[in-house]
Amino acid sequence: MWVMRQAGRYLPEYHEAKGNHDFFECCRSPEIASTLTLQPIDRFAGLVDGAIIFSDILVIPQAMGMEVVMVDKKGPHFPDPLMTPEDKQYKEVMEREVNVKESLDYVYKAITMTRQKLDGRVPLFGFCGAPWTLLSYMVEGGGSKMFKQVKTWVFKYPEESKALLQKIAEVCVEYLAEQVIAGAQIIQVFDSWAGELSPSCFKEFSLPYLTYIAEHLPPRLKELKQEVVPMVVFAKGAWYALDDLCDTPYNVIGLDWLHDPAQAYAIAQKKGKVLQGNADPGVLYGSRDSIKKVVKEMVDGFGGGKQGWIANLGHGKSDDTTDSSTGLANSIQASHPL
Ligand code: CP3
Fold first, then answer.
1. Which of 54, 67, 285, 306 has the most CB atoms around its CB within 10 Å?
2. Could you count the other beta carbons within 10 Å of the beta carbon of residue 43?
3. What is the sign, positive or negative, of the torsion defined by CA atoms of 140, 143, 144, 147?
């Protein structure tokens, strides 16, 4: 089990180590990023089985030349988002030779340092944002309710949108490859806004680019004389696309809590995929008994046993559910003692 705390900041030691540093300053400091990555591993020693590097999906738009700031208690903000394909920034982003090896060097340093400090305790995840989700941020300028800008882009400027999605996908492959060189042992692609697309739009504007990443990362790793690592895809809200996602080369399909674990397993098992998920993060507001019930349903649904599934929440946890996270980990251990 591993728990993303991206929306969380739930550990008091997180705030202590972060101090007065701004969020992206923490990402850019390998020392701080590594400390923040290890905090839940130390606190929940023996209960969590994976670490995810402290960083953010929005470092790719930054590497592509866009400014992104993290506004306290509000989330990410692009002061100057992409407006239309006529916008001179679109041309600049499209024409820019993105060198992630250089510009995101701090992420690789944090990964290498963290691998050393983990010393084999648990595997380390690297990650990136999916092209569709990153495009959404780049044109919306931050989180959104209506996704008006990105819908304008895909429906009014589909070709220009696809050109940018392809460019982002290529950057993702290179970025993930560098993370593996630095020491990431498994990678995850987060398509947090997949559920904003209709099934046919998902097939057109997200799936091809998720697939591109999964088809191109393994050969790129081989070319770089690296071991091929397992790949996880998490397309939040895209329950309708489970079959299609199982046909991609991703090894693990992350599920949010809108899936019935047993139904998802019936589809994924036929295609040899591992499932990761999918407890409703909201259950952590409940009692130990309610947590146990959800965990049991999930683990039994995934086929039980001790292999072939990764217990996780169906999305990041919020910052006010600390104690019950230990409850979640304990429940998994109780139903499946090692
Ligand atoms: O959980 C971890 O610490 C692992 C590292 C991680 C972060 N972000 C750190 C973070 C990971 C894997 C992410 C991914 C990420 N970032 C996603 C995909 C996952 C998802 O949530 O769907 C997205 C969409 C982002 C963009 C982003 N970053 C948002 C929307 C926010 C604000 C969240 C909120 O509710 O306030 C962030 C901030 C962020 N990223 C924090 C952390 C620890 C909180 C920063 C803080 O204020 O201290």
1. 54
2. 15
3. positive
Structure tokens given for 314: 């169906």
Which structure tokens are listed for 244? 């299609």
Q: What count of other Cβ atoms lies within 10 Å of the Cβ of residue 78?
A: 19
pLDDT in tens, 127-145: 999 999 999 999 999 998 8
Start-to-end Cα distance in the chain: 12
Assigned fold of 12-254 = TIM Barrel (3.20.20)
Instruction: Name the residue of 56, 58, 78 whose CB sits within 8 Å of the most ligand 1 atoms, as the mutation to test its pocket.
Output: 56
Nearest CA to ligand 1 atom 41: 6
Residues with CB under 6 A from ligand 1: 4-7, 9, 23, 52, 54-58, 70, 75-76, 127, 143, 190, 192, 236, 316
**All structural domains of the chain with their residue ranges:** 12-254
Please name the residue that has the structure tokens 């944002």.
129
3-state secondary structure of 52: strand
In terms of C-beta density within 10 A (0-12 exposed, 13-18 middle, 19 or more buried), how is residue 303 classed?
Answer: middle
Dig out the tokens for 86 from the structure.
Answer: 């006529």
Q: What is the pTM of this model?
A: 0.95
Burial bucket for residue 306 (CB in 10 Å: 0-12, 13-18, 19+): exposed
CA-proximal residue: ligand 1, atom 9 (nearest):
6
In one-letter notation, the amino acid at residue 87 is D
d(CA 40, CA 36): 8
Neighbours of 151 (CB within 10 A): 17
